[in-house]
Write a structure and sequence with these properties.
mainly alpha; 71% helix
Length: 292
């Protein structure tokens, strides 16, 4: 299934909705401590897809709910994602100079400010989700699981440990289920919770999240190989320089592309079990077509 203009227009509308809410939730730059709040806003409000909060809105819609009920939960996932990028870019980790077409936070504000900004974004995420209108405790637990030692942080730990070492396809898939897939799966499931989806519907959203999240990561690996920094907004070829295992390195470019398409197909099948899963099905296909 090819993504059409309707999906892209939908994503743009929802991105604008999310950014308006993030603008409201983040402390203003002139509120003390101003330098910390500037660094937080520099990260969280930098140009981006807003994928995770949009997935929360889509998950809510997919089970028949009103998407605005998932907005706070979605923004909490975006704040966690923003913190993770700040910390991942640090010299002790990926040592990246460019993110979303701009200097990374530690390059713009210094390492100490970047660490503290990441800490503050993570903390703010839980303050935000605590104010969600539907089952805030359950949403907070889902967010914590997605972000923690058996989710995103665990994935980053494994990623660092694997640098420069050979990896199998199975090991790489386990890594990315944590590092990338956990937040994607968590966001779309939390959207379903906000829409008061049945447990079977939440299960279908969970399946979609794992499959589409891995498809997104395989496509990201392909972009790192095939696109320039100007096209992607981050350091091109950084994975190879860092000695990271990637799907193109293990499967070849065409093999990785075939895997991404198969994952997107299977995610589409999971979405088909939902009352209004058409957009999720289309989005999974879009993940493997994107060029940034």
């Amino acid at each position: 299934m090819k993504s059409g203009p309707d999906l892209k227009q939908y994503l743009e509308r929802q991105r604008a909705t999310v950014e308006k809410e993030l603008e409201r939730l983040l402390p203003a730059e002139d509120v003390p401590p101003a330098e910390l709040h500037k660094a937080m806003r520099y990260s969280a409000m930098s140009p981006g897809k807003r994928l995770r909060p949009i997935l929360a809105l889509m998950g809510c819609e997919a089970v028949g709910g009103k998407p605005e009920r998932a907005l706070r939960a979605g923004c909490a996932f975006e704040l966690v994602h923003a913190y993770s990028l700040v910390h991942d870019d640090l010299p002790a980790m990926d040592d990246a100079a460019l993110r979303r077409g701009r200097p990374t936070v530690h390059k713009a504000f210094g390492e100490a400010a970047a660490i503290l900004a990441g800490d503050a974004l993570l903390t703010l995420a839980f303050e935000v989700v605590a104010g969600a209108p539907v089952e805030p405790a359950r949403l907070a637990a889902e967010l914590a699981r997605a972000a923690g030692s058996q989710g995103m942080v665990g994935g980053q730990t494994v990623d660092l440990a694997m640098e420069g070492k050979p990896a199998t396809e199975k090991e790489l898939e386990a890594l990315h289920r944590w590092k990338t897939g956990a937040l994607i799966r968590g966001a779309v499931v939390c959207g379903g919770i906000c829409g008061r989806g049945a447990e079977a519907e939440l299960g279908a959203l969970s399946d979609w999240g794992w499959l589409a999240g891995l498809a997104f990561q395989v496509a990201d690996d392909l972009l790192d190989v095939e696109k320039t920094a100007a096209e992607t907004g981050k350091d091109a070829g950084g994975d190879a320089v860092a000695g990271k295992a990637t799907y193109p390195a293990i499967l070849g470019v065409e093999g990785a592309r075939a895997k991404a398409r198969d994952l997107a197909r299977r995610a589409g099948e999971a979405a088909a079990a939902l009352p209004s899963g058409g957009r999720l099905r289309e989005l999974a296909a879009y993940f493997v077509e994107r060029n940034s």
